[in-house]
Amino acid sequence: MAIRLQGVSRRYTSGAAEVSALESIDLEIADGEFACVVGPSGCGKSTLLDLIAGLQKPDGGEVSVESGSHGAPVLIFQEAALFPWLTVLGNVEFGLKVRKMPREQRRAIALQQLAVVRLQQFANARPHELSGGMKHRAAIARALALDPPVLLMDEPFAALDAQSRDIMHQELQRIWAETHKTIVFVTHNVREAICLADRVFLMTARPGRIKDIIPVDLPRPRSVSNPAIAALASVALDHLREEIQQVERNEFDTGWLYPESGVHPPPAGGVAGGR
Amino acid sequence: MASVAASLVDGFRTGTVPIAIAASMGRMLVGYFLAVAIGLPLGIAIARLKVVKDTLGAAAASLQSLPSVCWLPLALLWFGLTEKAIIFVVVMGATFSITMAVEDGIRNVPPILLKAGRTLGASGLQMQRSVVLPAALPTIVTGLKLGWSFAWRSLMAGELLYSEKGLGRVLMMGRDLGDMAQVVATIIVILIIGMLVNEYLFATVERSLARRWGLQGH
Predict the structure, then answer these.
(1) Cα–Cα distance between B76 and B58 in angstroms, integer?
(2) Do B121 and A95 touch (CB under 8 A)?
(3) ipTM value > 0.90
(4) Chain A / chain B CB contacts < 8 angstroms
(5) Residue in B21, B24, B27, B25 with CA at minimum distance from that of residue B8
(6) How far is CA B121 from the centre of its chain?
(7) Which residues contact B94 (CB under 8 A, 6 or more apart)?
(8) Where are the alpha helices (DSSP H) in chain A?
(9) Contact by Cβ (8 Å): A132, A159
(10) How far, in Å, CA of A71 to CA of A96, rounded?
């Protein structure tokens, strides 16, 4: 078992109030599994990843994560978060340099990982010279260079344009198949989750709990445009609807609920003012 | 105009101006070097250590707003009529602007880069060295530039009030002799030196940083 969470909870204090971000989370993710976590905004998805990454400690319960030769799992963010003062190669070498690996050795590993994400010819480019998708591939190579058994991805492609995102979905599936990593991938996009995952974990609105687990047994490589994926995504979305409504109850004016049709009726009396 | 030009030529021919430039630059280099040596670590400490921030942080901010020439009486009492007094004024004039910029740069490192550094295994001193300082570098360079111009101003102010040689001295000499052309010529020399250092040293570094980082607006 690559990752095991037992009864994990995490609270925040916001001002005087104590907010429960995660409550009694139990989950197990197998070696080499591709797990996607989907939930409404604010359900504690990112907190969950921080806990698995060891960047935060749980208030209750236990988190156990298989660690590799270079320690904890590596997080990948929505922004590629490449270091602008380093070349692409320098970025990929970063984690190894921090671990004081000799130059020759870390350079060889970095070039090898750049080949995995097919960016070897951009090794000496600067991050700002790369497109959005290339930056993310570089960020993946930077994480892979540490050879972590577990990769944690926090809405990594949310800021990409639709075409780059489609390409990244294909690339990520290929990289996953080639490297046999365990991946925990957080997203708010149900279709993306179904497209990528072996199992999709649906979370409830705050406090976040695991609501449902949807196994996805479709042949790979998959594409978001595949009708079977769209069908499964709409099933998952039905499961989530209640949770999304709860978020809306908290965030919208009263009387604004997510309707069954998925389309809001125009507000009575027209829009006053706007935001 | 012609008399200013003539005065400039004359100043260079007789060696007055080159000697003054050499004297001023000598003080400048020592003073600026000291200001960087104090200001840089102080800025890092204020940004990183809460104790230092609570104590020296506010002091640095208020000291920065004090015109450096205010230090001259104190410097003369402390060091007497010596080189050290003027260098002290230069140091006091430049240090805190460097400190403030360094602190600002470190404080404004994008949190996502810190998080990226942490997840890749950097922590402690290594995090400071391999993430925080490089990320703050553009702001630090701006601070060094600012420090240089503050140092230059302080030096001129100090030399005006007291020195044996230097550009400020030449300026005062012009006043004492009632020689307007010499005064204007000296001001031009002072401006040109400031411009050259800015353009060929700091602007070059800033441009190269901007190019490598892909920053806009340079």
Answers:
(1) 26
(2) yes
(3) no
(4) 61
(5) B21
(6) 36
(7) B31, B32, B35, B39, B68, B147, B148, B150, B151, B154
(8) 45-53, 88-98, 103-116, 132-144, 162-179, 190-196, 227-251
(9) yes
(10) 12
Q: Which residue has the tokens 């353009």?
A: B199
What's the token pair of residue B58? Answer: 């506010």
Distance from C-alpha of B209 to C-alpha of A65, rounded to nearest angstrom: 40
Q: Work out whether strand A210-215 and strand A199-203 pair parallel, antiparallel, or are unpaired.
A: antiparallel
Q: Do A126 and B214 touch (CB under 8 A)?
A: yes
Which chain A residues in 64-83 lie under 8 Å from chain B, judged by CB atoms?
Answer: 70-72, 74-75, 77, 79, 81-83
* Cβ proximity of A118 and A141 under 8 Å: no
* A94 interfacial to chain B (CB closer than 8 Å): yes
Note the pLDDT tens digit of each residue in B141-165.
999 999 999 999 999 888 888 767 8
Please state the rounded mean pLDDT for residues A40-62: 86
Phi, psi of B105 (to 5 degrees): -60, -45
The dihedral through the CA atoms of B80, B86, B90, B91 has a sign that is negative
pLDDT of res. B99: 93
Per-residue pLDDT at A41 exceeds 50:
yes
pLDDT tens readout for residues A89-144? 999 999 999 999 999 999 999 999 999 888 999 999 999 999 988 999 999 999 99
Average confidence (pLDDT) over B45-52: 85
CB A47 within 8 A of CB A54: no
Is the bond preceding A259 in cis, omega lying within 30 degrees of 0?
no
Q: How far apart are CA B102 and CA B92, in angstroms?
A: 16
Model confidence at A274, in pLDDT bands (50, 70, 90)? very low
Chain A contact for B137 (CB, 8 A cutoff): yes
- Range A177-206 average pLDDT: 90
Query: Rounded to the nearest 5°, which phi and psi values hold at A78?
Result: -65, -45
Closest-CA distance, B169 to chain A, in angstroms, reads 44
What the block records as the tokens of A201 is 């974990």
Percent of chain A with pLDDT over 90: 34
Residue B11: how many CA atoms within 13 Å on its side-chain side? 27
- The reported pLDDT for the residue numbered A16 is 77
pLDDT tens, position by position, B74-107: 888 898 888 888 899 999 999 999 999 999 999 9
Distance CA A148, CA A66 (A): 9
Kindly state the tokens that stand for A54: 């060891």
Q: Flag if B113 and A85 touch (Cβ within 8 Å).
A: no
Residue A255 has pLDDT above 70, yes or no: no
Smallest CA-to-CA distance from A234 within A193, A184, A205 is with A193
- How are beta strands A150-154 and A74-76 bridged, if at all? parallel
Q: Which amino acid is at A46?
A: S
